[in-house]
Write a structure and sequence with these properties.
Blueprint (H helix, E strand, L loop, with lengths): L9 H34 L3 H26 L4 H18 L1 H16 L7 E4 L2 E8 L3 E5 L5 E5 H6 L2 E3 L6 E9 L5 H13 L11 E8 L2 E10 L5 H19 L1
Antiparallel strand pairs: 1-2, 1-5, 2-3, 3-4, 6-8, 7-8
Length: about 250
């Protein structure tokens, strides 16, 4: 391609055309994202598939732009493809994790075991899925931390999808002083916890003894709620009820 619009400064022409391609690429990515949003909203496409479509369109636009830039600077694309075939094994080995994550993302999408908006736990990390791409999945924990998980982790490790359940158990471990009557404590606490407005009436709260140590009796208090995003608030409610009851019985 002859881009010698400034014969005395040949590189200026290359620079201008490359800049135009880069700007057009950014605009194209933005437009493709808006179009996918509109199409998804109109036809009810689920969020998981929408994010993957955005990734696919973005990568395709980047590849086209890259090939156009190579053509502008005078690199023979056919020769480059042949050369890549020679070094492809080396590059493939170096990028095996990226390729593995990419393929894992496709398999997860096909299996539909994880979707945007669902609550999952993998490798002791629990949170709500906010974005799924070909390489990574992003979740937000109850502590409002953003965690990016390679799709290979989801593909190679067992994980729990809590969205399949309609209720969640809230546990609280505490130590009861020896001078507190454990029987009276258990009976009274279960009554009070049952009266909390978020506790599900079809799953009774319970108190389990874990162990005894020099500080007192360690117990686990369990109750069931249905709003995952408020689990920390539920646990705080349990702690307040325990504190007030121990002060009364002490």
């Amino acid at each position: 391609m002859n881009l010698n619009i400034f014969p005395q400064y040949p590189f200026i022409g290359y620079f201008i055309y490359v800049a135009i391609i880069l700007i057009a690429t950014l605009i194209s990515v933005k437009i493709s994202s808006l179009l996918i949003n509109r199409v998804s909203k109109r036809f009810g496409i689920e969020l998981t598939f929408k994010y993957l479509l955005k990734d696919l369109a973005k990568y395709l636009i980047y590849i086209i732009a890259f090939l156009m830039i190579l053509d502008i600077v005078g690199i023979d694309i056919n020769a480059l493809i042949v050369s890549l075939g020679v070094v492809g094994i080396t590059l493939g080995f170096a990028a095996r994790d990226v390729i593995s994550s990419f393929l894992s993302g496709i398999f997860i999408l096909a299996d539909k075991t994880v979707k945007v908006g669902e609550v999952i736990e993998v490798n002791d990390v629990k949170g709500k899925v906010t974005k799924m791409g070909f390489r990574t999945t992003t979740i937000v924990t109850v502590d409002n931390l953003i965690v990016t998980i390679p799709n290979t982790v989801l593909a190679k490790n067992p994980y729990t999808n809590y969205t399949f359940f309609d209720k969640y158990r809230i546990d609280l471990n505490i130590i009861i002083p020896f001078n507190v009557d454990i029987g009276n404590f258990e009976k009274t606490l279960i009554q009070r916890v049952s009266n909390l407005n978020w506790v599900l009436i079809d799953s009774s709260p319970k108190v389990d003894i874990i162990e005894m140590n020099e500080n007192g009796i360690k117990v686990k208090i369990s109750a069931w709620g249905e709003n995952y995003s408020r689990i920390d608030c539920y646990r705080l409610d349990l702690a307040n009820e325990v504190r007030k009851l121990i002060e009364e019985l002490d």
